[in-house]
Amino acid sequence: MQSWIHVLEWRATSRADVPALVDDRGTRLSYGELLDLVDRRAGGWAAAGVRPADTVAVLARNSADFLVQLLALERAGAVPALLNWRLSDRELADLVALVQPVAVVADAEFVSLAEAAAPDLPVRVAIGSAEGWVPATALDAPPPPRPWEQLRSDSVMALVHTSGTTGRPKAIPLVHGSLIRAVSASAIEIGDQVAGSAHLQVMPLFHLGGLGQAMQCLLTAGTLHLIEAFQPATVIDLIERERIEFATLAPSMVDALVAEIRGRPAPPDLASLRELQYGSAPITPASLSAALPALGCRFRQIYGCTESQSMIALLAPEDHQPGSPRLATAGQVAFGWDVRVVDGSGAELPPGEPGELHIHGDSLVPGYWRDPGSTAAAFTDDGWYRTGDVVSLSADRYVTVHERVTDMIITGGENVYPAEVEAVLAGHPAVAEVAVIGVPDPRWGEGVHAVVVPAGGAVGDAALSAELTGWARERLAHFKCPQEVEFAGRLPRTATGKVLRRELRAARSGVPA
Q1: pLDDT tens across 421-443, in order?
Q2: Which of 89, 165, 203, 352 is the most buried (most CB within 10 A)?
């Protein structure tokens, strides 16, 4: 049997004194201390009435406490549901209804958000101090019996979520054994992550990108430095002070670090840095040319999705050279994946021909949580996952991503699905039609841009633009809201009535579709 509790016990036995977790709240735990704390917190959850297979919502920033609670809930046999604190209370309420938690643990600053989204939960635990909530430090009791019968390789370790292309939330069950295999393959690929290696975790732990890298650090007995929010100066100082060796960032974060370094009167000492991994979008040749000398380390691109629980492809450091033709790709298909590129009828296409990427492998999630309809739509009858990405595959298995079938927008590392934003804007009485697209943004990679056809006699002006933006902000997380609202007399459509988003994007860029 394999689970992350087995991993923690192994590391607490073999590397008891190695620092495991360090955060900017002042927490510092060795592997031995981490296991002891996880056992006691698990006992507290059991004493509070949480039972094996129960779901517990987690609403917190990156911290040692986040991972302690995650592991303690797993140790108690429960399923932590990791929620995005950037969502609005309405969105969170939809997620709560989906995952049906029996309890919630939240940072003190998110208590009011949690109360609005889940007002009736009998067990409410605060990381910090909050009136009417149980302090997380009070979860301290002898550990429950080890749930070996429930906690197996194929057990669900956590739920993460996605809004999907329809705007309706979907929960994705991460599986213990699959994620262990996935991060093991990544660790083998990197090779020099060893006990005590210093890792920096900036990406949010409620996303697989952040959580997977954190668990990889624990698997290799590294020291994980967690920070609550990305600030370029803070990150540079931390790398220099703590001799950080490995980090995972979004490409826009890499650009911000380079700007911070260039703005300093003296260059920082970043000699400890070995490798930066990035995902969510390719890095541009210009960004890479600036980053290589500024940061002085290897770069590795990871291409994957939450449903894959791991990298589908990776672009190795040797391909990260200015002028390399590989930079235009998402990398080479990773070990353990069968991939195929198909046309609209499902027929497999030859190398070089663009079509939708389908994947199949042991790390693939079994389906969406309690959602057979979405599962049937996303998976083929023979078990392949439809990624929704239009790609071409070279003869040597390099993947080039041409566009996303779903037209998903990636802004600051967060996924935004146009249908979700469009559904909200369409509810405003002054909107007759709306289409949402991603546009280049120098800070966030992509920005959310809405093209609106006004209804009736509505005037498309600055006042209406501000009104629509405010309407969206009342109903959506701010990162999903349009940065700009453009007005048009009509939306370009196909003969079957589908909006031609590529024409809207082309009109913005000036490049023909």
Answers
A1: 988 998 899 998 899 999 998 88
A2: 203
